[in-house]
């Protein structure tokens, strides 16, 4: 799978979980949390901090793991904020020089 296919598939799974919530799902736990959008925003903050700490202090695999956590939780926050990933991708595409 290419990198963009991995992200696209993950985004589809996140949107599907939001629309058809199964009984047990981490994505649903975050998106339907009693704190509302604040839960996913809190997770982005935590994961960003953990990523920074890993980059400064940890080995390569820990950096990769924390980067994956940050990207995943950023996707959850986008969904919670009703921001479409394709609009973010178009924005990045428009910035190409
Ligand atoms: N990529 C991920 C992914 N990355 C991390 N996590 C979860 O994110 C959590 C990481 O949170 P922390 O490290 O902060 O641990 P924690 O402090 O115990 O978490 P909180 O209780 O504070 O939320 C863990 O529970 C991981 O299982 C993920 N959970 C799900 N996915 C993807 O989402 C898909 C759908 O998952 P479900 O919704 O669970 O079916 C999966 O198939 C995966 O592709």
From TrEMBL:
Native source species: Methanolacinia petrolearia (strain DSM 11571 / OCM 486 / SEBR 4847)
What SUPFAM superfamilies does the database record attribute to this sequence? all-alpha NTP pyrophosphatases
Catalysed reaction(s) here are: 1-(5-phospho-beta-D-ribosyl)-ATP + H2O = 1-(5-phospho-beta-D-ribosyl)-5'-AMP + diphosphate + H(+)
Q: What is this protein called?
A: Phosphoribosyl-ATP pyrophosphatase
Q: Which domain of life is it from?
A: Archaea
Chief location: cytoplasm
Q: What keywords would UniProt list here?
A: Amino-acid biosynthesis, ATP-binding, Cytoplasm, Histidine biosynthesis, Hydrolase, Nucleotide-binding
- Coiled-coil segments: none
Pathway entry: Amino-acid biosynthesis; L-histidine biosynthesis; L-histidine from 5-phospho-alpha-D-ribose 1-diphosphate: step 2/9
InterPro entries given in the database record: HisE, PRib-ATP_PPHydrolase-like
Name a GO molecular-function annotation.
phosphoribosyl-ATP diphosphatase activity
Gene name of the encoded protein: hisE
Q: Which GO terms describe its biological process?
A: L-histidine biosynthetic process
EC numbers listed for it are 3.6.1.31
- Say which enzyme class the record assigns: hydrolase
Concerning its family, UniProt says:
Belongs to the PRA-PH family.
Q: Which CDD domains match?
A: NTP-PPase_HisIE_like
Q: Where in the cell is it found?
A: Cytoplasm
The record's GO CC annotations read: cytoplasm
